[in-house]
Amino acid sequence: MSRISIDTLVKAIKAVQTMNSQQKEALVDELFRTQPTLLGSCLVLPRLGVSPEKMELPLNLLFICFQAMKQSGLPWPCISEGELERQADRYAATLKFSEGMKPALVKQAQQQYIVSHPEPELLAYVSNETSQWLSHVVSEDSDRFVLMATMNLVNCIAYVPLQLMEK
């Protein structure tokens, strides 16, 4: 069962969309205190060649994911660097699995990934936003880092061990 419902996600999206710059700064401060690894995973992107103009998408998705985490009412653990790396490796392996496959099999593998994902609504939202973003930007090699970072946000939220959530 999903930990972030559609209603929670919609509320988070609306909340972030209506925030002014001061409110977003306060959200960044809260992220720094409670989820520094997630924040760092986006802030490192310029060092990987992502231009400042392209930082809006990953930061906005981070804000929405974090707001959804808060609004879920669950006691989220601080996501560690180890968890971040584990999920990045897992996602990279998933992508590598489909390399060289026929298009029909790739589509089937993608559908299986989506169906079995613990946070299908969050995955669908982030996937849709990144697809729209890709259709509006001038393609650069560094875009892959944006895609990896945003998918990693979703996977860290989806797969953070439940036993860590108990207090």
Percent of sequence in beta strands: under 5%
Residue share in helix = 55-70%
N-to-C CA distance: 20 Å
| Principal-axes shape call | globular
- Structural class based on helices, strands and sheet pairing: mainly alpha
**Number of distinct helices:** 8
Instruction: List the secondary-structure elements in sequence, H or E.
Output: HHHHHHHH
The number of distinct β-strands equals: 0
Give the biggest beta sheet.
none
Mean pLDDT: 92
The total domain count is 1
**Low-confidence residue ranges:** none
Roughly how many Å is the radius of gyration? 16 Å
Word description of this protein:
There is one protein chain. This protein is an all-alpha fold and 167 residues long. It has one domain. It contains 8 helices and no strands. Helix 2 packs across helix 3, helix 4 packs parallel to helix 8 and helix 7 packs antiparallel against helix 8. It is globular, with a radius of gyration of 16 Å. The two termini are 20 Å apart. The mean pLDDT is 92.
Summarize the SSE layout with pairings.
Elements: H1 6-17, H2 21-34, H3 36-43, H4 56-71, H5 81-97, H6 103-116, H7 120-136, H8 143-159
